[in-house]
Design goal:
The protein is α/β, with parallel strands linked by helices.
Length: about 240
């Protein structure tokens, strides 16, 4: 099975950091952590390729190579998302869509063969099971908030780290607050769910083993959502 994971292009806005990145000779601020994590959840024997359109151009040959295109994005990337969808449909390559943009607005996108919505730890495996039996559904969704202590280390081998100004890491999901401008509680709920200290160290070690020596950005919705665990376990471990 050939799987092409595509991260659409940011427009020339704050989100792209396009002009600031020139000063540090980088092409993008952060790699697509969600897709890299999903890639690690796919069967190991599958061939996987990731195209971050903020780094590399997406060619027709890339799309033709794939049995399935997996795409994830945020709202700011909508224009690029629609362009990718059209290209895949014109080349008869099936699309699997997930992530924040589709979880909250999948009805706005035609041309998607399968939606895997919500958190991948819950909805991806049913899709994979149905793919094996040939009985795929159009939509896979769940309101379940999974335990993320078993979430695998992202598949860093799919990217060239030198093109990014920073790597990223997720320690927790969810936020106990309810700010009116934020949709995090819709995506990840109010209860902070965390990874273990050993898991966090393993992810940092993986980055180091892949040659990263730069900055590390923690992408959490609210890093201090569980202050007790943070103070008792995580911060002392990071200091050590």
């Amino acid at each position: 099975m050939h799987i092409l994971l595509i991260y659409p292009q940011y427009p020339d806005t704050f989100w792209s950091f396009k002009h600031a990145l020139k000063f540090v000779s980088k092409k993008a601020a952060f790699p697509p952590l969600g897709l890299l994590t999903v890639a690690a959840m796919l069967p190991e024997e599958w061939d996987k390729k990731l195209i971050d359109m903020n780094i590399d151009k997406l060619s027709d040959s890339d799309i033709k190579w794939a049995d399935y295109v997996f795409i994830s994005a945020m709202a700011v990337q909508t224009k690029s998302v629609k362009e990718v969808i059209n290209r895949c449909k014109n080349l008869n390559t099936k699309i699997v869509a997930g992530g924040p943009l589709f979880t909250t607005g999948f009805r706005e996108f035609g041309g998607i063969d399968h939606f895997v919505l919500g958190e991948a730890e819950v909805t991806l495996q049913p899709f994979l099971d149905d793919l094996e039996t040939g009985n795929l559904r159009h939509i896979y969704s769940s309101d379940e908030r999974p335990d993320i202590s078993n979430t695998p280390v992202p598949l860093w081998s799919l990217i060239n780290m030198k093109h990014y100004s920073s790597m990223n890491l997720q320690y927790s999901r969810g936020c106990p607050y309810d700010c009116e401008f934020c949709d995090i509680v819709i995506l990840n709920g109010h209860t902070p769910r965390t990874k273990s200290k050993d898991q966090l160290v393993a992810e940092m070690d993986a980055l180091y083993e892949h040659g990263w020596r730069g900055s590390l950005f923690i992408v959490d919705d609210n890093f201090i959502g569980n202050k007790k665990k943070l103070k008792a376990e995580i911060l002392p471990t990071l200091i050590e």
